Amino acid sequence: MASLQSLTSMAQAFTSATVDVGKRLGLTLRVDKSGVGPGMKATSSCSAALIGVIGDEIKGSVTLMPGQKAFTEIITTMSGGMIQEPRTDDPMSMSALGELANMICGSALKELGTKSEGKIDITPPQLFAGDNLRSVPADYPGIKYFTISLKGEGENNNIFIVLGFQ
User: Fold this and answer.
1) CB distance 42 to 161 below 8 Å
2) Rounded to an integer, what distance in angstroms lies between the CA atom of residue 70 and that of residue 151?
3) What is the rounded radius of gyration, in angstroms, for the C-alpha atoms of the chain?
4) What is the DSSP letter of 79?
5) Which residues of the chain form beta strands (DSSP E)?
6) Number of domains in the chain
7) Which of 60, 93, 101, 137 could share a disulfide with 86, CB 3.0–4.6 Å?
8) Longest C-alpha distance within the chain, in Å?
9) Can you give the residue range of the structural domain that contains 61?
10) Given a cut of 70, is residue 101 above it in pLDDT?
11) What is the domain-level CATH number for residue 40?
12) 92 close to 85: Cβ distance less than 8 angstroms
Protein backbone atom coordinates (compact mmCIF):
# COMPACT_ATOMS: atom_id res chain seq x y z
CA MET A 1 0.00 0.00 0.00
CA ALA A 2 1.23 3.48 -0.84
CA SER A 3 2.27 5.58 2.10
CA LEU A 4 0.60 8.90 2.82
CA GLN A 5 3.92 10.60 2.05
CA SER A 6 4.07 8.89 -1.38
CA LEU A 7 0.49 9.88 -2.20
CA THR A 8 1.09 13.47 -1.11
CA SER A 9 4.22 13.64 -3.26
CA MET A 10 2.26 12.26 -6.21
CA ALA A 11 -0.57 14.77 -5.83
CA GLN A 12 1.93 17.64 -5.70
CA ALA A 13 3.92 16.29 -8.67
CA PHE A 14 0.86 15.78 -10.88
CA THR A 15 -0.56 19.18 -9.99
CA SER A 16 2.64 21.04 -10.84
CA ALA A 17 3.21 18.88 -13.95
CA THR A 18 -0.25 19.65 -15.32
CA VAL A 19 0.14 23.38 -14.75
CA ASP A 20 3.70 23.40 -16.17
CA VAL A 21 2.89 21.32 -19.27
CA GLY A 22 -0.19 23.47 -19.87
CA LYS A 23 1.92 26.62 -19.62
CA ARG A 24 4.45 25.27 -22.15
CA LEU A 25 1.56 24.61 -24.55
CA GLY A 26 0.05 28.05 -24.02
CA LEU A 27 -2.79 26.91 -21.74
CA THR A 28 -3.43 28.87 -18.56
CA LEU A 29 -4.45 26.49 -15.78
CA ARG A 30 -4.89 27.13 -12.10
CA VAL A 31 -5.80 24.88 -9.22
CA ASP A 32 -9.45 25.05 -8.17
CA LYS A 33 -9.02 24.45 -4.43
CA SER A 34 -12.72 23.73 -3.94
CA GLY A 35 -12.39 20.63 -6.14
CA VAL A 36 -9.20 19.23 -4.60
CA GLY A 37 -9.34 16.43 -2.08
CA PRO A 38 -9.86 12.77 -1.31
CA GLY A 39 -12.27 10.75 -3.41
CA MET A 40 -13.52 11.18 -6.95
CA LYS A 41 -14.76 14.73 -7.37
CA ALA A 42 -14.91 15.03 -11.16
CA THR A 43 -18.26 16.70 -11.77
CA SER A 44 -18.46 15.98 -15.49
CA SER A 45 -16.18 15.45 -18.46
CA CYS A 46 -16.54 14.40 -22.08
CA SER A 47 -13.40 12.26 -22.29
CA ALA A 48 -10.68 10.63 -20.24
CA ALA A 49 -7.11 9.44 -20.69
CA LEU A 50 -6.13 6.83 -18.09
CA ILE A 51 -2.50 5.84 -17.52
CA GLY A 52 -1.48 2.96 -15.25
CA VAL A 53 1.33 3.64 -12.79
CA ILE A 54 3.34 0.85 -11.19
CA GLY A 55 6.27 1.44 -8.90
CA ASP A 56 8.25 0.02 -6.01
CA GLU A 57 5.87 1.57 -3.47
CA ILE A 58 2.75 2.34 -5.52
CA LYS A 59 0.28 0.75 -7.91
CA GLY A 60 -2.64 2.55 -9.49
CA SER A 61 -3.72 4.97 -12.19
CA VAL A 62 -3.78 8.61 -13.18
CA THR A 63 -6.78 9.84 -15.17
CA LEU A 64 -6.97 13.15 -17.04
CA MET A 65 -10.63 14.16 -17.47
CA PRO A 66 -11.36 17.43 -19.31
CA GLY A 67 -14.78 18.99 -19.67
CA GLN A 68 -15.99 19.83 -23.20
CA LYS A 69 -14.65 23.37 -23.25
CA ALA A 70 -11.26 22.28 -21.88
CA PHE A 71 -11.17 19.36 -24.35
CA THR A 72 -11.73 21.76 -27.26
CA GLU A 73 -9.04 24.16 -26.02
CA ILE A 74 -6.54 21.35 -25.34
CA ILE A 75 -6.97 19.63 -28.71
CA THR A 76 -6.92 22.87 -30.70
CA THR A 77 -3.72 23.88 -28.90
CA MET A 78 -2.10 20.42 -29.09
CA SER A 79 -2.76 20.25 -32.84
CA GLY A 80 -1.37 23.73 -33.47
CA GLY A 81 -4.82 24.79 -34.70
CA MET A 82 -5.01 22.00 -37.30
CA ILE A 83 -8.01 20.49 -35.49
CA GLN A 84 -10.38 23.43 -35.21
CA GLU A 85 -13.46 21.45 -34.17
CA PRO A 86 -12.26 18.68 -31.83
CA ARG A 87 -14.65 15.78 -31.28
CA THR A 88 -14.43 12.82 -28.95
CA ASP A 89 -15.31 10.49 -31.84
CA ASP A 90 -12.29 11.73 -33.84
CA PRO A 91 -9.22 9.46 -33.39
CA MET A 92 -6.80 12.36 -33.91
CA SER A 93 -8.48 14.45 -31.22
CA MET A 94 -8.42 11.58 -28.75
CA SER A 95 -4.80 10.78 -29.64
CA ALA A 96 -3.83 14.35 -28.77
CA LEU A 97 -5.53 13.94 -25.36
CA GLY A 98 -3.54 10.75 -24.80
CA GLU A 99 -0.34 12.55 -25.71
CA LEU A 100 -1.11 15.30 -23.20
CA ALA A 101 -1.61 12.65 -20.51
CA ASN A 102 1.76 11.13 -21.46
CA MET A 103 3.45 14.54 -21.25
CA ILE A 104 1.94 15.23 -17.83
CA CYS A 105 2.86 11.78 -16.48
CA GLY A 106 6.40 12.05 -17.83
CA SER A 107 6.88 15.43 -16.19
CA ALA A 108 5.37 14.30 -12.87
CA LEU A 109 7.36 11.07 -12.77
CA LYS A 110 10.56 12.94 -13.53
CA GLU A 111 9.87 15.13 -10.49
CA LEU A 112 9.02 12.10 -8.34
CA GLY A 113 12.26 10.43 -9.45
CA THR A 114 14.23 13.31 -7.98
CA LYS A 115 12.48 12.71 -4.65
CA SER A 116 13.64 9.08 -4.48
CA GLU A 117 10.20 7.53 -4.86
CA GLY A 118 11.86 4.47 -6.38
CA LYS A 119 11.32 2.99 -9.81
CA ILE A 120 8.02 3.96 -11.47
CA ASP A 121 6.70 2.73 -14.83
CA ILE A 122 3.62 3.83 -16.78
CA THR A 123 1.36 2.16 -19.33
CA PRO A 124 0.20 3.66 -22.63
CA PRO A 125 -2.97 5.74 -22.20
CA GLN A 126 -6.39 4.18 -22.44
CA LEU A 127 -8.86 6.64 -23.97
CA PHE A 128 -12.54 6.95 -23.08
CA ALA A 129 -15.29 9.20 -24.41
CA GLY A 130 -18.89 9.74 -23.41
CA ASP A 131 -21.39 12.20 -22.07
CA ASN A 132 -21.04 13.25 -18.45
CA LEU A 133 -18.12 10.99 -17.43
CA ARG A 134 -17.57 11.18 -13.70
CA SER A 135 -15.09 8.43 -12.93
CA VAL A 136 -12.76 6.16 -14.85
CA PRO A 137 -12.13 3.55 -13.58
CA ALA A 138 -15.07 2.83 -11.32
CA ASP A 139 -14.66 3.07 -7.56
CA TYR A 140 -13.10 -0.20 -6.31
CA PRO A 141 -12.52 -1.33 -2.72
CA GLY A 142 -8.94 -0.94 -1.53
CA ILE A 143 -8.14 1.91 -3.89
CA LYS A 144 -7.81 5.41 -2.50
CA TYR A 145 -8.76 8.23 -4.87
CA PHE A 146 -7.67 11.84 -4.84
CA THR A 147 -8.99 14.49 -7.24
CA ILE A 148 -7.12 17.57 -8.41
CA SER A 149 -9.38 20.11 -10.11
CA LEU A 150 -7.91 22.70 -12.46
CA LYS A 151 -9.59 25.54 -14.30
CA GLY A 152 -8.67 27.14 -17.58
CA GLU A 153 -9.68 30.60 -18.71
CA GLY A 154 -13.41 31.28 -18.94
CA GLU A 155 -16.41 29.56 -17.45
CA ASN A 156 -16.88 25.77 -17.39
CA ASN A 157 -13.29 25.14 -18.49
CA ASN A 158 -12.40 22.36 -16.04
CA ILE A 159 -9.84 19.57 -16.09
CA PHE A 160 -9.76 16.90 -13.43
CA ILE A 161 -6.78 14.73 -12.55
CA VAL A 162 -7.93 11.66 -10.60
CA LEU A 163 -5.23 9.66 -8.82
CA GLY A 164 -6.25 6.16 -7.77
CA PHE A 165 -3.73 4.09 -5.78
CA GLN A 166 -3.62 1.01 -3.55
Assistant:
1) no
2) 8
3) 15
4) T
5) 30-31, 37-38, 45-55, 59-66, 120-122, 126-133, 144-151, 158-165
6) 1
7) 93
8) 44
9) 4-165
10) yes
11) 3.40.1550.10
12) no
